[in-house]
Amino acid sequence: MLPPQPSPVSFEHLPDGLGVGVAAPRLTWTLPSGAGRQHAYELEVDRSGAVHRTGRVDDACQVLAPWPGEPLASRERATVRVRVWSSADGEPSAWSEPRVVEAGLLDPADWQAVPVGAGWHEDPEAERRPARVRKGFPLDRPLSHARLHVSAHGLYEAEINGRRVGDEALAPGWTVYPYRLRYRTHDVTDHLTVGANTIGAWLGDGWYRGKYGFDGGTRNIYGTDQCLLAQLEVTYDDGTTVVVATDGSWSAAPGPILASGLYEGETFDARLHDPDWCTPSPIASDAWAPVRIGHRDPATLVAPMAPPVRCTEEIAPVSVTRTGDGRHLLDFGQNLVGRLSVTLDGPAGTAVTLRHAEVLQDGELATRPLREAYATDTLILSGQGPLTWEPRFTLHGFRYAEVDGWTGDLGPGAVIARVYHTDMRRTGWFECSDELVNRLHDNVVWSMRGNFVDIPTDCPQRDERLGWTGDIQVFAPTASYLYDCAGMLDSWLTDVGLEQLPDGTIPWYVPVIPGEPMWTPIQPGAAWGDVATLTPWTLHQRFGDVELLRRHHPMAKSWVDLMERLAGPSRLWDTGFQLGDWLDPAAPPEDPAAGVTDRYLVATAYFAHSARHLALSAAELGEDADAERYAALADEVAEAFRCRYVLPSSRMTSDSPTAYALGIVFSLLTPRQRQDAGDRLAELVLADDARIATGFVGTPLICDALTDTGHLDVAYRLLLQTECPSWLYTVTRGATTIWERWDSLRPDGSLNPGGMTSFNHYALGAVADWLHRVVGGITATAPGYREIAFRPRPGGGVTWARTRHETPYGAASLSWEVTATGITARCTVPEGCRAVAELPGCAPLTLHAGEHLLDTAEILGATA
Asked: Per-residue pLDDT for 514 more than 90?
């Protein structure tokens, strides 16, 4: 009898195989239960009936294995399956279920489409009414299949014959548009029919030409042309094909969306909407005029590397309050990112206004933190009966919403919040015996969801929402545990490399938009620029993707070389503009960079840390000479750091928690200095009654610094503090996401007066990585969790914890509980992996794939 089959293969880091943008996609599978460890595999590829088998490949690789045989051609479809050997000389497993992969348009010459948009004059400096574009076409015989390859300058939602294509939002997303514009491939076979057909699209400004950024925003950052780029390819059942591509034969007309902006919100006049506009039915042709043709270099069109933004959840309000003047105030019980869907009826011309905010002040929406993001949607009713509507081309960050102009009562189901974010697969979970800590962890998850909207943003509600490099640099270890974000961050890092300046400078945020006077012109900054070295390494460690590391290695090398030039022979980066320990709680509200830690101490520490990680990356890539050179550089910087910033007494020149945490976690100190630094760090924390005294730089490090120097009890005290500033202070104040500032809401109930005050900002939630590794106890000790350490460190009165992570090899989990005689732990090791269990007081135990129940009392008794 054959062993069970492995899982179906997956392709790259994509959720499915339709429209892949690489000709030789790598393959991943998980082993069947009980397989233990793979010794060999065989792949079968069926390409239109031509079947190719690799034969037995003696290799344990099952994550991102190389594509077998010839690369795919554009549009080529193949069916792939795998079987494995889990012993050196046994029988293979059964074949996996087949999985289909289909290449997108891999050659610029494949594109016939050109961008098309409104043909009428538009004032580029004004708010412009978005267009819709359409084309009718016949199909004269039965179809085999059809694909739509589609993108836009701006945003789009496509329709065929009155039915929406796909379910993604804010497509095609935000990339460095001059160099990379994503297109997506859709299977639209079921949308089409023999006879008359119509294809069309709604258009929106989005990031491309909408008003975006600081101080009132900048319009037309990438261009003034709002255009659709679409290529419908139909294959008849006789094998012949027809292409319907955007060209001069399309028509355009103003749509019922009067105005739309990512910050501003959207206004929709239902009186102007013809529901048959994208069907073969007759329409008012006088409203439609020829399109204007734009230009796009097809060499810049790229297929997605990650899932799109989608609605992933719907939430009903937990309370609805009617105000004295007829407004309705809704509380959804959760700070979220998305938009409202409303169902209502009323007289023609009735305007219903939806406003959004994260918090209330004196019973009303607190809109000051939004700055110039008005977050207001307006629906004008047609009077033609009940209507369900939600905006198309905007998103808001909110817990509370105000509905004004609603006719009658607002009943159940009339208004729901729809949650949107990049639809990544959830991979990590944590819970423990402390409910406040569980809520903190939930808040981290919600902040990641709200800020992973095509790019990793800093906040989802105000007039910013940018891809800040420092924020994701500190949060990437947490993010890569909670969700399969490899494809999304790989794509974004590609844009970081494109935006890197010729001298190696990494921008503060990517994609780059105007940010005068503070952020433009771009200057190199520690912790932010180090995303180039540290984040690719983190992703490689968590997802086992050495090619990702290789792709971004030139960017990392340029960054470290720049720091080396800036530091010069002294090896101290002690000049230039730096943010230091950004948002140190001691910094005044108006100057978040004015922390207590010397910003050049921070810069030099990161210089050493990045050089060390560049050396590690070079070694992983087989670049031995570079590995040796950058390891030596890291040693030199560490020595310079000690000479400048560590006193003979082992005190730091900045006697601050962040300084000591950097020295300890970045391995910049001698063994004696390291222990002294840990002791001093614990002393400082306890002297302040375990309140937080770190910002963006120190916060992800401080619990590890305490733990690794023998002060686990102090790390727990820091975690469990509920007075301001602390992680749990925010929880006790009702937070459902991570705040940007420790005191975004002050103890007296007032909003922080600083100009930047967000209630959804994941950076300070980077402590969740410590929760997963130390409290939960799961650590990757080889890339992709091929080797795992189960090392829980109970403390702080926490009596149990459960942690689970879907590694590339399968589920790893650890559940532990304090008992009267010690600790019991249940460990699950994925097939194909090995683990070491290090329970408190016990010698390490080697574990192989499967489930293991461990009891410290039994282990110690057996070794006594």
From this structure: yes
Residue with tokens 């410290």: 856
Which residues are within 8 A (CB) of 736 and not within 5 positions of it... i.e. 6 or more apart? Answer: 333, 334, 335, 399, 439, 442, 443, 446
Distance from C-alpha of 605 to C-alpha of 642, rounded to nearest angstrom: 10
Please give the full DSSP string across 26-52, using - where no structure is assigned: -EE--PPTT--S--EEEEEEEETTEEE
Residue 657 and residue 704 in contact, taking contact as beta carbons nearer than 8 Å: no
Distance of alpha carbon 147 from the chain centroid: 28
Q: Phi/psi at 37 (nearest 5 deg)?
A: -140, 135
Burial bucket for residue 89 (CB in 10 Å: 0-12, 13-18, 19+): exposed
Start-to-end CA distance of the chain, whole Å, equals 44
CA angle 190/196/197 to nearest 5° reads: 50
**pLDDT tens across 458-486, in order?**
999 999 999 999 999 999 999 999 999 99
Listed residue (781, 788, 790, 831) closest to 62, CA to CA: 831
Output the six-digit token pair for 597.
């830690």
- 594 CB neighbour count, 10 Å cutoff: 14
- CA 311-312-314 angle, to 5 degrees, is 85
Return d(Cα 551, Cα 495) in angstroms, integer.
Answer: 12
Alpha carbons 337 and 420: distance in angstroms, whole number: 6
Express the helix, strand and coil content of the chain in percent, nearest 5 each: 25, 30, 45
At residue 385 the predicted structure's pLDDT band, cuts being 50, 70 and 90, is very high
* pTM metric for this prediction: 0.97
Q: Quick: pLDDT tens for 70-124.
A: 999 999 999 999 999 997 778 999 999 999 999 999 999 999 999 999 999 999 9
Comparing C-alpha atoms, which of 567, 772, 599, 578 is closest to residue 698?
Answer: 599
Positions marked catalytic? 464, 740
Secondary structure class of 720 (helix, strand, coil): helix
Count Cα neighbours of 92 within 13 Å in the Cβ-side half-sphere. Answer: 15
CA distance 759 to 366: 11
Q: Residue 260 is inside which H or E element, if any?
A: strand 257-261
Cβ atoms of residues 103 and 75 within 8 Å: yes
d(CA 450, CA 483): 13
3-state secondary structure of 654: coil
Radius of gyration of the chain (CA): 28
CB-based contact 602:572 (threshold 8 Å): no
Q: Are 747 and 741 in contact (CB under 8 A)?
A: no
Specify which residues 340 forms β-bridges with.
Answer: 417
Q: What would the pLDDT profile of 174-189 be if each residue is shown by its tens digit?
A: 999 999 999 999 999 9
Torsion over CA of 672, 677, 678 and 681, rounded to 10 degrees? 170
Cis amide linkage into residue 657, ω under 30° from 0: no
Which residues touch 861 (CB under 8 Å, ≥6 apart)? none
Band (500; pLDDT cuts 50, 70, 90)? very high
Helices (H), 161-265: 206-209
Phi–psi pair at 597, nearest 5 degrees: -90, 130
Contacts of 560 (CB under 8 A, 6+ apart): 533, 607, 610, 611, 614, 630, 633
Helices (H), 428-530: 435-451, 469-482, 486-499
Chain-centre distance for alpha carbon 387? 34
124-128 LR contacts (CB < 8 Å, sep 24+): 124/219, 124/220, 124/224, 125/219, 127/211, 127/259, 127/261, 128/205, 128/226
Three-state secondary structure call for residue 320? strand
d(CA 305, CA 271): 39
